[in-house]
Design goal:
Length: about 190
């Protein structure tokens, strides 16, 4: 597979053991599955998420996700698109209503393999599976009007970085993902 995203994942420098393991799993899966960017691969498929921050880097924008019953980052399925940054930007706009959003960098900010429990979607059962996720750091204006995406969430709000950790009711995400993203953000600010 010679897609740009594969090269980006290969050159990404993991920040911890979780990312090293997940990077290897994602690359192996991409090399073995031509349909890795499609939901029709019911075992696992590519997704993109965004850690959206304000220009001062003191707040993050989160949505109250109906499926997970928790405040969370934005993101969604690749659905055949291999430009995962474009997917992250599209999902950020759709899920929050923000208009003025841009990448802080075109580089990958984080990698994760996420478990998704079986659930109902649009009246059909979706079996448990994996999301092979690429996260990007995006910046948005706090002055943009926020709007919920009724199909997916029931709230959109800015939180301080610490409030975001308390708002989420998904312990694994808080400990393994959101704390990591905040730590990487702070490192970026200090460099």
């Amino acid at each position: 597979m010679s897609m740009k995203i594969v090269k980006d994942i290969e050159k990404y420098r993991p920040c911890n053991e979780q990312e090293r393991h997940d990077q290897a799993l994602i690359l192996d899966f991409l090399n073995r599955n031509e349909d890795a960017f499609l939901r029709s691969n019911r075992l696992a498929h590519m997704t993109a998420s965004a850690w959206i921050v304000n220009p001062a880097r003191t707040k993050t924008l989160m949505v109250y996700h109906k499926l997970y019953d928790s405040w969370s980052w934005t993101g969604g399925h690749a659905d055949g698109e291999t430009d995962l940054l474009a997917v992250a930007l599209k999902e950020a706009r759709e899920e929050t209503g923000i208009v003025h959003v841009r990448p802080v960098s075109g580089e990958i900010f984080s990698l994760e393999v996420l478990t998704v429990d079986g659930h109902e979607k649009r009246g059909e059962y979706v079996s448990s599976h994996l999301h092979l996720n690429v996260t990007y750091l995006l910046e948005a204006e706090e002055s943009d009007t926020l709007r919920i995406c009724k199909e997916e969430n029931s709230g959109v709000a800015w939180f301080t970085l610490e409030e975001a950790l308390k708002a989420s009711t998904e312990p694994w995400f808080v400990e393994r993902i959101y704390k990591k993203l905040n730590g990487k953000l702070r490192m970026k600010l200090s460099s």
